[in-house]
Amino acid sequence: MPTREELSLLVRTAISEVLGTEAEEVREQTSLAVDHDVDSLELMEIGARLERSLRLRIEVADLTAAQTVGQAIDLLETRTAGRS
To answer: Which of 2, 14, 56, 76 is 20 to 30 A away from residue 84, measured at CA?
Structure first.
């Protein structure tokens, strides 16, 4: 099970690769919708990258429910904690 720090780096890296930014520019308080105007295709690409990296199914509703990067990390932390 990855640590929160590892999940944070993974999430921030996936986002930065899709958006063409630096991972350091993506913080836990970052709102993808407000700060980066992420569209649904970009969001799906981020989700797909995270699914491949974590070998975990992420529901579309989970992706859209997270208001900030930190909330997305919290969600993934909870989901990965349930796996053995």
So the answer is: 14
Residue-wise DSSP of 26-47: --TT--HHHHH---HHHHHHHH
Q: What is the pTM of this model?
A: 0.90
Q: Per-residue pLDDT for the chain (84 aa), expressed as one digit of tens each? A: 899 999 999 999 999 999 999 999 999 999 999 999 999 899 999 999 999 999 999 988 888 889 999 999 999 999 888 775
Cα→Cα distances 5→33, 40, 56, 77, Å? 23, 26, 18, 10
Are 50 and 14 in contact by the 8 Å Cβ rule? The answer is: yes
Domain 4-81 has CATH 1.10.287.3510: no
Instruction: State the Cα–Cα distance between residues 32 and 19, nearest whole angstrom.
Output: 10
